[in-house]
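ok trying this again, last paste got cut off
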Amino acid sequence: MAELCEKVLVDLTEHIKSWGRALGFQQVGICDVDLSRHEAHLQAWLDKGMHGEMQFMAEHGMKRARPDELLPGTLRVVSVRMDYLPPDAGFARNLKNREQAYISRYALGRDYHKLLRQRLKKLGEMIQQKISEFDLSYRPFVDSAPVLEHAVAEKAGLGWTGKHSLTINRQAGSWFFLGELFINLPLPVDQPVEEGCGSCTACITICPTGAIVAPYVVDARRCISYLTIEQKGAIPEEFRPLLGNRIYGCDDCQLVCPWNRYAQLTDEADFHPRQQLQGKTLLELFSWDEATFLKNTEGSPIRRIGHERWLRNIAVGLGNAPYSPDIVDALQRQRDANTEMVKEHIDWALAQQADKKPGQPDRQTLRLIRSVEKGLPRDA
């Protein structure tokens, strides 16, 4: 490929950032491909098994920290962010009402993977048109390959990595998606921004399951987002009461982050909550058969967990809800028609509901009563 002079590269970089904003990205940054300082942290995290069942995290080894190995010839990564916070998010009231299903805010609208990838592909095409005489190589990524997206965003100046491991921006908080465009041009790079978490540990303190085991270290095996989305089998019983009514993902660490007071509402209508998902009760969502689930989650990231895990998650939420004869009836009606995994969670939920039934001794008291009864004479 013919060499591009420095002035052409500088001008092209300005165009790339302008085109990116026109395509709906709130910020565009550029970094080189040296992420070597993250390799030791990544390896230690993998060695401790904190990736859980996410074998794809380990399969590619250090390729995540080496963009030029993932796409040979890559010299720069164009990192972009796009806001997704919808109007009237209703976080607090949705979490407070335990009969209502809580779905992470990123998942209520259209699947962001496709939208961002299409915009990044368009950005690549615009660059190609601008320098059509050169042999340009580029490839967009949005959670679709082994990429350390937060490390890239940090190096490209989009923000810093918070103690919850997400990217935080001073002007926009953390309610945004990230995407990357790998490219074989030696574009001028941006500089990282100053870290802004300081001594704040709000995200660590608020985490319902204690998944943030140390600043900047998240044990996925304890994370509600992992448990409700990535976990394929049964949710460990110790975590079930801690899920509350969260049936897909968790936003707690972002809700409490003080930088999110500066978060901007999204301009993308596709990220606005869908009517069939927003503000629904656990019972209503639990009543969906597989055909209804597939129809109502078409084009949504929720569809990827499948109907079985959907019911598993909601069963846990119903177990955590206040006692209701309607909940007990729904759980009992669904039980025999489901898989062994879902049955296990329904049985757990029924036991939780039984403990909350008015006038019913709690489970610990019942165990005490039964142990005393075993020691009494038959005619006592």
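PB: full thing came through this time. Residues 1-271 form one domain.
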